[in-house]
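From the methods appendix. Each design record in this collection lists the tokenized structure first, followed by the designed amino acid sequence. Records were kept in a plain field format so they could be parsed without special tools. The example shown here is representative of the layout used throughout.

RECORD:
FOLD TOKENS (280 positions):
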């Protein structure tokens, strides 16, 4: 029997208000270790949603109203199949859940669906849900070019291969921007964060706020990506069951897994949002 959205959602999510500044949103995302949050208007009604990606996509905007998405929401009593369909349609990782009065009561990400995927579709094979959305990069590609590739393709995790197309590792946006070496106090002050604020400030900004790097023209290293990639990422096989792949995602809180075939050759990438297609 199908579950409702209310049964799998993250309840009482952290929210923020509009109007507000992007720097306020950034601080909230960082301090609470989250990547997106719903926004409410002055009446407490749902106004939109903003995520790390939305901040990335609007590096010159300082007002939340200009960076947020007025994205469709779902209601608590809807079947999870409807929510999965909406998430796939939007191709975004956060969907707000509302009550009958259009007030925010929850939030959904693909991770909320994974236990149900295991229970209902665990015997399906990984290869049955692959969509062919993989952008490999050569291990000698300069890191700044990898950043450009991610930004233009909107694919933020790239498998790394050698000149013989052998799979060598994985690079994600988080891994990439952890390697940037910039001074802290100057950039923290520019986001409205005082020097005496909590110690999470700069480490969080470096991971979460790519736009600070792009907007202020901080140069990424021109060194090859092989020096920065994850050399032994968790992977799955295209003949694995979804139960196996999903358990790996849940255990490591991974959004994606490189997919290999029996010989160890890269064949695709598996993203958690792709997996939701099993509900359609």
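DESIGN:
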């Amino acid at each position: 029997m199908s579950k409702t959205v209310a049964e799998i959602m993250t309840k009482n999510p952290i929210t923020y208000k509009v109007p507000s500044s992007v720097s306020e949103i950034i601080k909230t995302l960082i301090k609470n270790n989250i990547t997106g949050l719903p926004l409410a208007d002055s009446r407490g009604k749902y106004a939109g949603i903003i995520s790390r990606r939305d901040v990335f996509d609007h590096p010159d905007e300082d007002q939340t109203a200009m960076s947020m998405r007025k994205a469709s929401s779902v209601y608590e009593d809807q079947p999870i199949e409807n929510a999965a369909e909406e998430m796939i349609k939007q191709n975004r990782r956060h969907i707000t859940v509302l009550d009958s009065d259009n007030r925010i009561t929850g939030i959904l990400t693909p991770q909320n669906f994974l236990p149900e995927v295991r229970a209902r579709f665990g015997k399906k094979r990984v290869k049955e849900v692959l969509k062919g959305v993989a952008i490999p990069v050569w291990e000698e590609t300069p890191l700044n070019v990898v950043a450009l590739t991610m930004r233009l393709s909107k694919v933020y995790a790239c498998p790394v291969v050698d000149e013989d197309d052998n799979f060598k590792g994985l690079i994600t946006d988080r891994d990439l921007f952890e390697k940037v070496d910039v001074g802290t106090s100057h950039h923290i002050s520019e986001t409205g964060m005082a020097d005496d604020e909590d110690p999470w400030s700069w480490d969080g900004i470096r991971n979460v706020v790519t736009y600070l790097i792009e907007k202020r023209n901080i140069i990424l290293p021109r060194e090859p990506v092989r020096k920065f990639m994850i050399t032994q990422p968790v992977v799955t096989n295209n003949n694995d069951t979804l139960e196996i792949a999903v358990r790996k995602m849940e255990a490591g809180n991974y959004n994606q897994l490189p997919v290999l075939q029996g010989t160890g050759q890269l064949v695709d990438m598996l993203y958690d949002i792709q997996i939701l297609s099993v509900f359609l």
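APPENDIX NOTE: Residues 180-202, 204-218 have pLDDT under 50 and may be disordered.
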